[in-house]
Amino acid sequence: MSLPKSMSYVAKMPETVAEWLEGRRVEEIECVIADMAGVSRGKAMPSKKFSREERVFLPQSIFFQTIDGQYVDMEIENQWTEADMLLVPDYSTATAAPWAGDVTLQVIHDVLNMDGTPVELVPRNVLKRVLGLYKAEGWTPVVAPELEFYLTKPNLDPNQPIEPPMARTGRRVASRQAYSMVAVDDYGKVIDDIYDFAEAQGYEIDTIIQEGGAGQIEINLIHGDPLKLADQVFYFKRMIREAAFRNDCYATFMAKPMQDEPGSAMHIHHSVLGADGRNIFNADGQPTDLFYSFLAGLQKYVPSAISLFAPYVNSYRRYVASGSAPINLEWGEDNRTTGIRVPLSGPEARRVENRVVGMDCNPYLGIAASLACGYLGMKQGLKPRSAMTGEAYDADHGLPRSLLGGLDAFERAPELREVLGSNFSDVYSALKHHEAEAFLQVISPWEREHLLLNV
After folding, report:
1. CATH class of domain segment(s) 5-118
2. pLDDT tens across 155-180, in order?
3. pTM of the prediction?
C-alpha cells in the first residue's frame, strides 16, 4: 500500500501504526511530552502540518508548575522569559489514540535546547541520563513494571470520599478479592476496552488481575528496555483513563484513593545484562557480587529517592503495616512483605523487585531513580543486610513518613542528585516543597471532627 505524500512520515513509525491505519488517512497528530507529574503535554496539529516537519516548540516553564497548577519562583536566571524548548519527534514512539473521534496518532518528542543538547529538566531525559551511565559500564538494564490502579464511581465533589464502582450485580464491587476472576468480570467492559486500545497501540499486555482493593486492577507489562517501558506506562495511564471514561467511571492512579483500601504501587522488576548479553546478577547458577550490590544500593538510597517514588502528600499513606505496602527496605526471596523482593525464577532470570514505588510517580522518574539506586550500589561495591526470613512488617519502619521528610533525605544525598542531574534535582525539590507547604494550609475533615470541640 502506497501512502499519500502527506503521510510519508508513517514509514518512519512502527509497523503497528500502518497496520492500525489500514488505509485510513491520519487527521491529527499529537506532539507530546511528559511533564514533572507524568501528564501528557504538547500540541495537536493537522497531519499535513506535521508532514511539513516544521519545528515545534514548548516553553520551559511547564516544568516549573506544580500538580495544583501553581508556578514556583526559583533562583534561575531569566526563569520567566518563557524560553522555548525544541521538540523533535521520536518516530519509534508513534502510536494510535484509538479513543479519539478522528484518526489520531501520538508521538513522544525528544526535548532539546536550541543548541541541540537535552533539556536537563525533562523526566524522559533524566532516564536517558541514567541509562547512559549504565551504558558507559557496558551494562544494559532490563525492567518490568506492574501497574496498579482503581476504577471508581465518578467523583464530582472533591469533598466527598471516593467510592468503588457499581458491579454488574447492581452492588458495589467488593474488596479483599485478590485474583478473583469473578471480580474482574464485574468491570469486564472496561477491561475489554483496555485490551482493544492496547492492541490498537501495538502493545502486548502480560496479565490483568484483580488486586486486593475494591475495584483495584493490576496490569503487568512484558519486560524490556527501560525507556520503552516508561513510554508505555506514560501512554497506558492516559489510555486506561479513556477506557474508564467510556464506561462511566474513573480510573485513578492516586497512591491511596480510599482510606480503608490498600494503596496502588508500580512495582519495578530489574535485571542487568552485560556486554555478552548475559544477566550479570547470575554466574554459574549463583547470585553475583553485583546482584548483592544492586540490592544494597536500593537499601541505602531508596530512602533518599523516596520523593521520586512517592511524589505527593497522599503517597505516604501507603506505607503502613496494615496496608500491604512495604514499610522498610529489608530484602528477601519470594517475600512480599519486604520493600525489596527477589522473585522466584531460574538463575538466568534472577531479578530484583522494588516494591516501594507508587503508581502515582512519573514513570520516567520512578524507573530512573530505581536504576540510579542500584547503579550507585554496584559502583560502590555495597553489601546488603542479611535477607529477611519472616514478615518484614515486624521490623522497624525504615522509610520517610512524609513528603517533607523525603525531600530532606533527597537533599542529603549529593551522589544521587548528581546521577539524576543537579539542575533537575534542584527544580524537582523546589516544586515538591511548594506542594507540601500548600497541603499544610488545607484543614482536613479529621481535624474538624476531632479538634473543633475537643481541644
Report:
1. alpha beta
2. 999 989 999 988 777 777 777 777 77
3. 0.96
